[in-house]
Amino acid sequence: MMNLYSGTTCPFSHRCRIVLYEKQMDFQVIDVDLFNKPEDIAVINPYNRVPVLVDRDLVLYEANIINEYIDERFPHPQLMPPDPQTRAKARQLLYTMEHELFSHIDALEKNLKSAEKSRAHVRDRLTELAPLFAKQKHLLGEEFSMLDVAIAPLLWRLDHYGIELSKAAVPLMKYAERIFSRQGFIDALTPSEKVMRR
């Protein structure tokens, strides 16, 4: 059985939980208190961070790497596009998301001096994405994919991070509600995450 060491409020762990629940696999989530991490996290991940996936003698860290492994090992439902060109495009978009959106999570989580700047940056990037959802159902088109998995924890935490979107972002928020109503997303929420959204 796969074990996922997962932070109960960590948006990156949240991504991995979504994938595991979408796949409806046999796995165990081991909740990790981010403020009092057990020592074995530092032993299995040299960066002492979650998420960490342990599958027999394989140990993986970093959410995107864990999720691609799960998707390749358990291909139904497939979350990365089947053809190499679209898959490369998806990886490129994931990389862009990491730099444009998720690089600001630390400042928002820890409410650093740069948090206000990060709030504005994330708000602006998300607002730029909004028109896309007037034309299509998900980030890569009509099918739910790894890109939707990646952005969902951030969209869920907008209230929690104090990010307010304008009316221009209505299509994005309608898209977010579609994602939040998926059973895999609902099942992946921890009690601590459920209270993050008003």
Your description of this structure?
By secondary structure, this protein is an alpha+beta fold. Helix content is 54%, strand content 10%. It is built from twelve helices and four strands. Strands 2-1-3-4 form a four-stranded mixed β-sheet, with helices on one face. Helix 1 packs parallel to helix 3. The chain starts with a strand and ends with a helix.
Question: What distinguishing features does this structure have?
Answer:
about 200 residues; alpha+beta; four-stranded mixed beta sheet
Topology:
Blueprint: E1 2-7, H1 11-23, E2 27-32, H2 39-44, E3 52-55, E4 58-61, H3 63-73, H4 84-100, H5 105-109, H6 115-129, H7 132-135, H8 146-156, H9 158-161, H10 170-180, H11 183-188, H12 191-194
Parallel strand pairs: 1-2
Antiparallel strand pairs: 1-3, 3-4
